[in-house]
């Protein structure tokens, strides 16, 4: 009985998402330029993005999309840290770019948690859901 309800709920959530929705789950990030280009494509196409797991590092650029394009599940989380790996000057440029792209509520949360550092800081779904709709929940 419980399994049947769980499957029914999962199916309802999937049906509430458009067929072309992108789901982000377990994304460790990568090169900021690649994510910036992909986010620009999603913004232009107005494609929805749902978060259903970890979205870390450069992946957090998805949060720069309009809130109407995004939704979070209760399994979502976001990991923030300073960019690294290219060179000191480029890393500063990358960090400034990231911060400039985030919506105000993300920048404020980062600031309240000590700012970006080389240590990953994690925002949970409960915080993100204060600013983004929950996936599969009709308004």
TrEMBL record:
<protein>
    <recommendedName>
        <fullName>Rap1a immunity protein domain-containing protein</fullName>
    </recommendedName>
</protein>
<feature type="signal peptide">
    <location>
        <begin position="1"/>
        <end position="21"/>
    </location>
</feature>
<keyword id="KW-0732">Signal</keyword>
